[in-house]
Design a protein that fits this description.
The complex is a heterodimer of chains A (103) and B (138). Chain A is mainly beta and 103 residues long. Chain A is 8% helix and 33% strand. Chain A has helices spanning 51-54, 73-76; strands at 16-19, 38-48, 64-72, 87-93, 97-99. The relative contact order of chain A is 0.28. With 138 residues, chain B is mainly alpha-helical. Chain B has a domain at 37-114: Nitrile hydratase, beta subunit (Cyclin A, domain 1), CATH 1.10.472. Chain B contains 5 helices and no strands. The longest helix of chain B has 17 residues, at 98-114. The N and C termini of chain B lie far apart (42 Å). The chains are: A mainly beta (103), B mainly alpha (138). Chains A and B meet through helix 1 of A and helix 2 of B.
Chain lengths: 103, 138
């Protein structure tokens, strides 16, 4: 993707990000169980046309940065019984992410 | 459905019908099966139309499948879902009309009957909401 069609990434490796917990209408690329949860950016995958627009026969530009975000399983599932070190990594588009609130 | 916990989910809290992560559906059926000829054909059509011809995107396929009601979603197989979505998208994009498709299905039924095949008269219901939005927006 060229500079005209995409924007520079808003987040960097290691950034703590929170997945928005909005309730969208129509096609959406953030699964329900991840919304409102906080994780860490581990990979910047590049910029891709917005699939939530492509789904409606639209160009999906400007392209969105796609991140791989790592979550602790015990954060995602309150009754998680596996080892504490278990993680889940998920690809999430930038329009679903915001800086994690500082605690 | 016997032995299956009911998980009402359609549009509850922004969770569409396919979005079942974290819900209890029991053990995953890991059995493999050989693909039928029609399933291979559906796959071929998707590859040709979504990539070569760029008639629509895989994202569009997903959007249609996600708009199914729970009953339709839970009671159709993988390739039945793709086949139905394919049909919706071809109509949305004016590649074929609903009338043309209905006519072809009638012709195919007649051909099959003439060949002595057992043919169902059951029509697959159209998915609600054929998208007619403008294609030139972002």
């Amino acid at each position: 993707m060229s500079a005209e069609t995409s924007r520079p990434p808003k987040f960097r490796l290691g950034d703590h990000v929170r997945v928005d917990d909005r309730e969208p209408l129509g096609h959406c690329r953030a699964p329900h169980f991840i919304r409102g949860r906080t994780g860490t950016v581990v990979t910047i995958q590049g910029a891709f046309r917005d699939p939530e627009r492509l789904a409606y026969h639209r160009p999906g530009l400007p392209a969105l940065t796609l991140y791989k975000v790592r979550f602790d399983q015990c954060v995602l599932w309150p009754d998680y019984s596996g080892p504490e070190r278990d993680r889940l990594e998920l690809d999430i588009y930038e329009n679903w992410l915001e800086p994690a609130p500082t605690t | 459905m016997s032995g299956k916990q009911q998980n009402y989910r359609n549009n509850a809290g922004g969770r569409t019908v396919h979005d079942v992560g974290g819900l209890d559906f029991g053990a995953v059926d890991m059995d493999e099966h050989d693909l039928a000829l029609w399933e291979r054909r559906v796959d071929a059509m998707i590859v040709l139309l979504a990539t070569d011809k760029a008639a629509f995107t895989v994202d569009g396929m997903r959007r249609v499948i996600e708009s199914y009601g729970e009953q339709q979603y839970d009671n159709t197989t993988y390739y039945e879902k793709w086949c139905r979505a394919l049909r919706n998208l071809l109509v949305e994009q004016d590649v074929v009309s609903q009338e043309e498709l209905a006519q072809k299905v009638a012709e195919a039924r007649a051909t099959m009957r003439a060949a002595g095949r057992d043919v169902s008269d059951e029509d697959v219901p159209w998915n609600e909401g054929i998208w007619t939005g403008e294609a030139d927006r972002t």
